[in-house]
Amino acid sequence: MTAIQFETPTSVDDAVAALAKANGNGRVLAGGTDLLVQMRAGMVRPGLVVDVKGISEMVSIEKTGDGFVVGASVSGAELGEHDELKAAWPGVVEAMELVGSTQIQGRASLGGNLCNGSPAADSVPAMIAAGGVCLIAGPNGRREAPVEDIVTGPGKTSLANGEIVVAFRFPNRPAHSGDAYLRFIPRTEMDIAVVGAGVSLTLDDGGTCTDARVSLGAVAPTPLLVADGAKALIGSKIDDGALEKLAAAASAACNPIDDKRGTIEYRTQVAGVLARRAAQIAADRARSN
Amino acid sequence: MARHHVSTTVNGEPVDFLCETQQTLLDVLRDELRLTGSKEGCSSGDCGACSVTIDGRLVCSCLVLGVEAEGHEIETIEGMAEGEALHPLQQKFLEEAALQCGFCTPGFLVAGKALLDRNLNPTETEVRYWLAGNLCRCTGYDKIVRAVMDTAAEMRGA
After folding, report:
1. How far is CA A14 from its chain centroid?
2. Is A107 on the interface with B (CB under 8 A)?
3. Dmax of chain B from CA atoms?
4. What is the pTM of this model?
5. Domain assignment present for A90
6. Residues A91 and A120 in one domain
């Protein structure tokens, strides 16, 4: 077996160049909480590992005129310690903080959680609901893509060979906006989502919903953007009738598997309940700012 | 390819070692540096027996590559006592018998100390969530949680 090469570029261009040389046999190392497990299990055998944590734009959180730009390799612990980001996007931060233990939080990142391609990744529905945009770099230069366009199936992404998710942009939001993410697991900590639901919404001064995005995890081969869920909320005061329609839309969007964590029927039911509860939390947050 | 030459700091001491890319920090600590206090339980980041801190941040050393230690400060269970003087948390684990077989104990101590370094007044819920990534299969959690709570109280002079 040939030795695995290891590189620590300090710029995105150098990281892209290193991956290009590896001809598809390179892997990006951010927190390593998925990659190292997969390498140890023999699921992946990279010829090159590129540690991107020496690249400043991938490990920093910037507040810009357009909103927040969050480096794809920033750890969950660092997200949770960033008061400004937490105030603006509590749903995104709380979703990432649900991933794993304190030890995992010290390493795991939004970029890794997305690019691992799990349908049950907690941060992904929250980022989709938030309208997060991926800033991507690759052999053909830079491009942007909404978070919901990345995962194409379990363990699969739309990223081309050699492309890296460098950072996520979360837009500025109007007053009276809020987001929330809820996950159902059979215990309180250290488990994988049976269902996850992210909701982000904006209310006008009178409390009527003017904008909303709803996303579900672990109920289909990919995280879902549920357009009918948003439609149920927009124009309403997030009253019981609207929440009932949201729950129905969320359940209707489900295409889950049966497994040890939950049956198809159970996941479909719980998706509606969680979407409804997440919308209530998001609305409470929106009313308080 | 030649092995990587890594210069790092372990428990305050400058350390150099050679490793291959796929060797984890846990492999390096145990097999190259002979610091066998950090234990290998699951090798998948689930059990916390290999807990160490890197630049003060609690991690599973089985999910860190040895080469990633370059230029960073690693603290392991071996650095917790100062000479013969046990850290208050180690002392409390002994006094309150917060261990049975002892395999998970280094991880619990490193993780518990990382909590106390940040927060000397944690609630029981905070302690339980903080330690949720450390598994004890002798099921001694209550004594462990109590020892952390009592150490916190002692250290803040309550």
Report:
1. 26
2. yes
3. 57
4. 0.96
5. yes
6. yes
